[in-house]
Specification:
The protein is mainly beta. It has two helices and eleven strands, in the order H-E-E-E-H-E-E-E-E-E-E-E-E. It has two domains: 1-47, no CATH class; 60-165, OB fold (Dihydrolipoamide Acetyltransferase, E2P) (Beta Barrel), CATH 2.40.50.
Amino acid sequence: MGNESHTSDAFAIDEVRELLKLVKENEIHELTIERGESRLRIKRGHAPVAPVMMQSSMPHMMQMQPAANPVAAAPAGTPAVSEPIISGHTITSPMVGTYYATPTPKDPPFVNEGDSVKSGDRLCIVEAMKMMNEIESDVSGRIIKILVKNGQPVEFGQPLMIIEPTA
């Protein structure tokens, strides 16, 4: 097979094609995979300042929804109370994966509600296809609300947390 390596560390052309397809379909700007002695790095176009961070250009207003039907969850005679509207800068998931608040199960979370963060600070990890993708803040401010739980599956574009930007 010409120039292909016969070691188990090498990347098969079909794997590379599949990874290229994944990078293109999910708008991933940079992907690096190491397998034994081999390393594969895929970069697309001009990456933003924080390549794993997807952001919206305007702050969002978000209505927090109760997880269950409020009428069924409230005892008889108790009026259902809706969550307050939270405004601020929304950090969203750049891909489908699993949300992790900590680098390892034994470590403390990267951030907690009420913490101050700077642009570029690590906020969480979204794991996709065994790759740990660090999500960084694109604004400086204070964490108002963390919207997902550690280990929870997340969708592309799903809000992860809300930051109150500082002036």
